[in-house]
Automatic annotation (TrEMBL):
Domain of life: Bacteria
Domain HTH araC/xylS-type as annotated: residue spans: 639-738
Lineage, uppermost ranks: Bacteria, Bacillati, Bacillota, Bacilli, Bacillales
Assigned keywords, A-Z: DNA-binding, Membrane, Transcription, Transcription regulation, Transmembrane, Transmembrane helix
Coiled coil location: none
Keyword Isomerase appears in the UniProt entry: no
UniProt-listed Pfam families: GGDEF_2, HTH_18
TM region positions: 12-34, 282-302
Name of this protein: Helix-turn-helix domain-containing protein
Length: 741
């Protein structure tokens, strides 16, 4: 019957906890799911936008560099129409053009054209218009007429010719009447490589269209998407849009350049969203299932834990013969209520019984208090409240009264004396007496509520003599009394008791009926071995630091003091042995056990001068050993730090703080240590290692530059490319072209 009802109550608890868990769990699951889908879509689209903007910005930067290059050409005195066409100086002009071409990472060839001339000048020499058209299939497709028109442009002009991009920049740029044009040849593959380096493994197709909607460059991974479709769909559109191609939904992202007028477009099948979303769904569903399982387990555990005390109480209360039985329709809690009521009634009856035995319980408590069994003032207060005891005030001391043999005619007299002392009315004080020791002694514990300035020897002496006088009326002889010291903590009462016991050891030398105070038994002692402690501390620390100069100075001060203080020979020997012991302990702490025998020989000294010299020799050896140990430690520390940096320099998170924490050093110390040991700052060291790694990967692999840079711990690829160029004098792409075998 109990088990059946118990299981129902347990199920109710479990279901209630489960409902409390399921409501927020369901809401949280829905919110997390939709946020995950939305966030994933926005993340992918924003990633594509950022990538496209990066491509656009880099392209604009390269084209702007060409405009700057054209301006420099127009101002170069070696490239004037006269100089460039001169039979003698023309060679220098051609060399100069080669230098300008080398300054750009995207230019394949450049031509300088001056109006009123039918000649174009390049890095390979001069060409007539007809000769240039014959040697270039791309220019033949453009045609002589259109080429001349482009060369006479007043604003920068971009034309797509087969697999080349022709960029015409009038010279001087921004001039109202330009006198010529610089024509740059840019390979489409150069633009494509630049896109791939920045985008890495792109998902979908990437297109660049000029103002005339001609394809400047494209990277294609989805063959189903036709360039013509994207040309029409992206016309005049920038941003993110969902388009339908061949029955499938595609996400199209478009950005436009204000510099070149080009439109940059990426097209990606939206199924890719759902491929990633499926992975997210699997993770989320797995997480939610685990979370639900955890919630279910917690609900069961919490339900069982909540019911467990009830079941235990039911089991306990039904062990007795007189426990109230279950009635129909009654649950466990109601039955427990009846049981508690019955227990309360029994408790009241028990309290009445306890009151009859309270004196015994009080004596047991006082005995345990005197023996120091209690270490918590709150515990003492609780027990005193239950026993209806009160210690007035916050100052306590203990008195032991010892009587002569046959002082009491019977035991009742002693009991009366105990009751009398416990009931005695003292001024601002309470006293409790207990028969604790032998039949001829009693212990009195006294507490006072008196201002500190009023508590003096006379006050205590009067109080103790008043108690002694009361005792005399019950005994034949006046008792001898021992008094412990005064304390302000209940947990220290046992100390006063021990002191009172100690005073009783001296009663044989005092007259019968004396009052002995512990404080009168204390004697002052003077210790010599604390002498020269300050000098010894400095001596020890300087030795541990390997500073022989300071250690020798402290030795000199100590031995000089020995000779000037007028000490006896025994006092001098004690201090000498103390110094030897200090030296021995210091050598042991430093771990130089091989020198222990040498230190042991010091005890055979014949004079303090001899000891001083021997100690000087020992300390000098120890200090040198400490210095060598420091050097060895620095070499090992250098090796360990450099090894750690070699193993972790490719981590993005590596920093001076991380390395300092790894080796339990301060950041400032580590920075200074690396500079002293390597001649480089931490930043220079990390940069050198990373540049070395990038150069190695560029020459030995075909890995995209973006991936190489990411692998070495850089997230800002463009910033690293600028650093690389500043250090090596060329971009990573150029370095790969030159050095790769």
């Amino acid at each position: 019957m109990l088990t059946k009802r118990g299981s129902k109550l347990l199920y109710k608890y479990i279901i209630s906890y489960l409902l409390v868990f399921l409501v927020p769990f369901t809401i949280m699951s829905i919110v997390i799911y939709y946020n995950a889908v939305t966030s994933l879509r926005e993340e992918i689209e924003q990633s594509n936008i950022n990538n496209l903007e990066q491509v656009r910005n880099l392209t604009d930067e390269r084209l702007s560099e060409l405009v700057t290059l054209s301006a420099r050409i127009s101002l170069d005195p070696r490239l004037t129409p006269y100089m460039i066409s001169h039979p003698y100086y023309g060679g220098e002009a051609t060399d100069e053009l080669r230098k300008y071409r080398a300054n750009s990472a995207i230019v394949e060839e450049l031509f300088v054209y001056y109006k009123q001339q039918d000649v174009l000048y390049s890095t390979n020499g001069s060409y007539s218009m007809n000769a240039l058209l014959q040697n270039s299939e791309e220019l033949q497709r453009v045609g002589r007429g259109e080429l001349l028109a482009d060369l006479h442009t007043d604003v920068p002009l971009i034309r797509v010719a087969s697999n080349r991009i022709l960029y015409h920049v009038p010279i001087s740029p921004n001039s109202e009447k330009p006198h010529g044009t610089v024509m740059f040849f840019i390979e489409e593959s150069t633009i494509i490589n630049m896109i791939r380096n920045l985008l890495g493994e792109i998902e979908g197709n990437v297109y660049i269209f000029n103002k005339d909607r001609e394809t400047v460059a494209s990277v294609t991974s989805d063959e189903l998407v036709q360039t013509e479709d994207i040309q029409s769909l992206s016309n005049g559109f920038t941003g993110v849009e969902t388009v339908q191609l061949h029955g499938s939904d595609y996400s199209m992202v478009s950005v436009e350049s204000d510099v070149s007028g080009w439109t940059f477009v990426t097209v990606m099948d939206q199924n890719q969203f759902f491929i990633k979303l499926n992975n997210v769904q699997v993770i989320m569903i797995s997480f939610l299932v685990v979370l639900f399982a955890v919630g279910l387990v917690l609900a069961v555990l919490l339900g069982r834990n909540q019911y467990k005390p009830i079941s235990q109480l039911i089991a306990i209360t039904h062990k007795g013969k007189h426990s109230p039985p279950f009635v129909k329709g009654e649950n466990e809690l109601e039955n427990l209520g009846k049981t508690v009521t019955s227990l309360y009634e029994n408790h009241e009856l028990l309290n009445e019984t306890i009151d009859l035995h309270q004196p015994f319980a009080r004596d047991q408590f006082l005995i345990r208090l005197l023996r120091g069994h209690y270490h918590d003032s709150e515990e003492i207060e609780l027990i005193m409240d239950s026993l209806k005891l009160s210690l007035k005030g916050d100052r306590f001391f203990v008195v032991i009264a010892q009587f002569e043999l046959e002082s009491f005619s019977n035991t009742k007299d002693k009991d009366k004396l105990l009751q009398l002392v416990s009931k005695k009315t003292l001024e601002n004080a309470t006293a409790y007496a207990v028969d604790f020791l032998h039949s001829d002694s009693i212990v009195v514990m006294i507490s006072m509520d008196v201002l500190e300035e009023k508590v003096n020897r006379g006050f205590l002496d009067k109080m103790v003599h008043d108690i002694q006088k009361e005792m005399k009326d019950f005994t034949v002889y006046k008792p001898t009394i021992g008094v412990g010291q005064l304390y302000d903590d209940k947990t220290k009462i046992n100390r006063s008791y021990i002191e009172a016991l100690a005073t009783m050891e001296y009663k044989f030398s005092a007259p019968q009926g004396s009052v002995l105070f512990f404080e009168d038994l204390e004697t002052e002692t003077h210790h010599l071995l604390g002498y020269l402690k300050e000098e010894q501390m400095k001596y020890v620390q300087s030795t541990k630091q390997g500073d022989f100069t300071v250690a020798d100075e402290m030795l000199g001060d100590m031995f000089e003091a020995l000779g000037s203080k007028g000490l006896s020979i025994n006092e001098i020997k004690c201090i000498c042995f103390d110094i030897i012991n200090t030296t021995l302990r210091t050598v042991s702490e430093l771990g130089f056990d091989q020198y222990m025998k040498q230190v042991d020989q010091l005890v055979e000294f014949k004079s303090i001068t001899q000891l001083h010299k021997q100690l000087q020799c020992v300390v000098e050896v120890i200090c040198n050993e400490v210095e060598e140990k420091k050097d060895s430690h620095n070499n090992k520390l250098k090796k360990d730090i450099l090894t750690y940096i070699e193993q972790n320099y490719k981590n993005y998170e590596i920093s001076l703080e991380v390395v300092a924490q790894e080796f339990y050093l301060s950041v400032s110390y580590l920075s200074r240590f690396i500079k002293e040991q390597t001649g480089e700052t931490f930043t220079q060291l990390i940069q050198r290692l990373r540049i070395r790694y990038v150069k190695e990967r560029l020459t030995r692999t075909d890995q995209p530059i973006k991936d190489v840079v990411s692998d070495v711990g850089y997230k800002d690829v463009a910033n690293f490319i600028r650093k690389f160029k500043k250090i090596e004098g060329m971009t990573p792409g150029e370095y790969r072209k030159i050095h790769k075998g």
